[in-house]
Amino acid sequence: YSTTPMLKIAKANKHGIVAFNVHSFDSIFWVLEAAAELKSPVILQTTVGTIQSLGAKNIVEVAQAAAQHYQVPTGLHLDHCTDFEIIKDAIRAGYTSVMIDASMHPFAENVARTQRVVELATSLGVNVEAELGKVGGVEDDIIVDEADAEKADPEECRQFVAATGVPTLAPAIGTAHGIYKGKPEIDFERIAEIAKMVDVPLVLHGGSAVPEEDVRRCVALGMAKVNVSTELKNIYSEAIREHFAHDPDSLDPRAYLQKAKEAAKEMVKTKIRIVGSENTV
Ligand code: 13P
Ligand code: ZN
Ligand code: NA
Predict the structure, then answer these.
(1) Which domain CATH number covers 209?
(2) Which GO biological process annotations does it have (predicted)?
């Protein structure tokens, strides 16, 4: 139950780890059951909105119990957090990694805010992720217009990692949160340049709707953590909707949640196979 070692191993062995956004307690079990069946490490991540909905301590306790039950290396990560106090609370509750997202601020301010979190987290063995550039699209409360999306500059990445000591970096490279209207224009050359400049595992945000071969290329170039949110929640929500379309009077949560579980597990397995972490534990 930790994030740092699995990212290090993934980077060294050039496979990826999928970080799935979970939005309910049930989905924690679905993700870990699927990961266990494939003998793959996995990261569970929640946004601040999900902490507000379920409670940080509850999420930690359920994640720990499920990781113990399924015997699968599990990280619990706080996704896209802009608030230092919430980060502190999540670490205190038992999250194993946190993202400080100060990418909306100018470079120097992003450095200062990230430094503060690195100082707090590192002494506690908690991994930190920060973002450079701006990932477009919608992720809970964080909304970035496509027009304002901005790719990360490789030289700035070097300076940023050197200045903050951040152990994991999420550079914007052309993906967006959510499902794209067209195909994402991923800047593979930029990823390669950034990977030359910094020695830390990189993170691919906006993993939903990225074609399989593009995800593989990103992983091969050093993107060790691949975030998937929208596709997972959509597929199991659709399974529930379909259940009610066929059986509008259904009142048995076990019946419709079973459909959700089957759909979620299949999606989780597909993504794990793409990043190549199957059979690595
Ligand atoms: P998607 O919703 O596109 O999968 O993005 C996930 C993400 O980056 C979470 O931080
Ligand atoms: Zn993201
Ligand atoms: Na996406």
Answers:
(1) 3.20.20.70
(2) carbohydrate metabolic process
